[in-house]
């Protein structure tokens, strides 16, 4: 089966694939997977809305982030519906280290927006890669849902990256490379708790 061109682009963009150990951990904790997936969709919508409030003078950003926020909230509703059908109670989970560790590297001043957009691209790209990698192991309903998310998540990755290129006064390659190294470390290193964007499960 041929790979989707956007997914192929994402594989090139990311520094590594999701380790098989994470896939096995996800299959052992389906409730946590869905709960944290819902949280991720909600946080993604919140990030888009935050950018809308902060950058009123950037028309391209306003349009893309408005669209993205609506799509992420729709995905949130869809995950919640799946959880309800499976009698999984939505509850608070501690956040993963992933996004916080990436955002620790954000520069201040004029470069802040560029870094936030690049991080957004990595988060969306990793989500897309994990949906694709998980789908073959899931039941028919959940596999179909995760495959249905690939197109929108791939587009979100492209939108974030395009906006970073648009608003940066210099090429973004070095910053992308910088965050790629950090993101790869977060994915491949041992992680103490399982979450949608966590790293390799710690050995008990």
Attribute tags:
204 residues, mainly alpha, two-stranded parallel ribbon
Characterize the structure shown.
This protein has 204 residues and is mainly α. Helices cover 70% and strands 2% of the residues. It has helices at residues 5-13, 20-28, 30-54, 59-85, 98-103, 112-134, 140-167, 173-188; strands spanning 190-191, 200-201. A two-stranded parallel ribbon has the order 1-2. The longest helix is centred in the C-terminal third of the chain and has 28 residues, at 140-167. It starts with a helix and ends with a strand.
The number of helical elements comes to 8
Number of strands: 2
Q: SSE order in H/E notation?
A: HHHHHHHHEE
What is the molecular shape? globular
Distance between the termini: 37 Å
Q: In terms of per-residue confidence, which ranges show pLDDT below 50 for 5 or more consecutive residues?
A: none
Strand order of the largest sheet: 1-2
Radius of gyration: 16 Å
Mean pLDDT: 95
Estimated share of beta-strand residues = under 5%
Look at the helices and sheets and give the structural class. Answer: mainly alpha
> Biggest sheet, open or closed, and with what strands and sense?
2 strands, parallel
What proportion of the residues is helical, as a percent range? over 70%
